[in-house]
Known about the structure:
Layout: H1 3-7, E1 11-17, H2 22-26, E2 37-38, E3 41-42, H3 43-52, E4 61-67, H4 72-88, E5 92-93, H5 101-113, E6 123-126, H6 136-146, E7 151-157, E8 162-169, H7 177-182, E9 190-198, E10 204-206, E11 210-213, H8 214-220, H9 231-237, E12 243-246, H10 257-267
Parallel strand pairs: 1-4, 1-6, 4-5, 7-12
Antiparallel strand pairs: 2-3, 6-11, 7-10, 7-11, 8-9
Amino acid sequence: MSVDALADMKVALIVPAAGSGSRYAASGGLRSKLDEDLGGRPVLQRTLEAFVNHPEIGPLIRIIIVPGPHDAEGFAEFKHRHGDRLGIMGAHLCKGGVAERYQSVQAALAHLKSLPTSADITHIAVHDAARPCIGNDLIQMVFERAARVPAVIPALDVSDTLKKVREEAAHTDDEDPVARILGSDTSPKSRRVVASAVDRRDVVMVQTPQVFQRALFERAYAQKDLSSTDDSGLVERLGESVEVIPGDPRNLKITRASDLALARAILGVSGPGERPAHKRF
C-alpha cells in the first residue's frame, strides 16, 4: 500500500472513555483505569499517543473522546484532569450517553458533524480508551486495509479450549450444617458446570481499532436497534461484510487491575512507586 493511498483517507478516531470500570474496581483498582500511571503518563494519554505519534497515520486522524461521568460536573472534572494534554494532541471532547456505549459513539458522530473539517472525513475508526499497548505495525495494517475495504477489524485466533457453562444449584453436602443453623453459612448456593464444548476453529477474539467507511458506519448507526457488543456487529446487521485481519496479543485491553502490570511490561515502563518522586504525576 502506498503512502498516497493512505493520504486519501481522513479519519475521525472515536475513543469511548465513559465505561464504569466496574470490573477494574472489583479486581482491586483504586481509581479509574484511564488515570492509572504508565511511565509517568495516564493510560488514556498513552492510548492516544500511539495514534498521534504514528508517522503516517497521525496526520490523517481527528480524535473525538467521549468521557464519563456524563453529568456536567463529571465532564468538567474530566476536562480538568486531561484537557491540557488532550488539547495538545488536537483531541475534541464531547459528552456521551448515559447508559450504553453506543450512545457515546452516537454523541461522537453528532459532534463530528459540528467540526469545520467534518466534510473531509472519509472513514470512522473506533478504539478502546483502555488499549494503550497497540503498536505501530498493527495501526498501519488496519488503516492500510481500510483504504481498500469498507470495514476491517483486527482479531486473534483462540488458542485455549472453550466451554459453554450453565448455572445449577450447589450440592447440599457443600453446606456447613452448623453454620446454616446459626445463619452464617457462606457456602455457594449455585455453581457453574460445563454444558458443552465450543468449536474454536471459527472463533476469534476481536480487538480495536475497527475502521469503516464513513457512509457505511453512519448507515449502521442509523438503525433502530443499536444493541451490540462492538461496532462491527452493527455493520454485520446490515448484511455487509467485515474483513478480519490478524490482531496483536500485546494489544490488550486493561480490564482488571492485574492487566496494568502486563501493560507496563509490554510498554517497558515503570509504575509511580518505581520512579523518583519528581518524575511521578
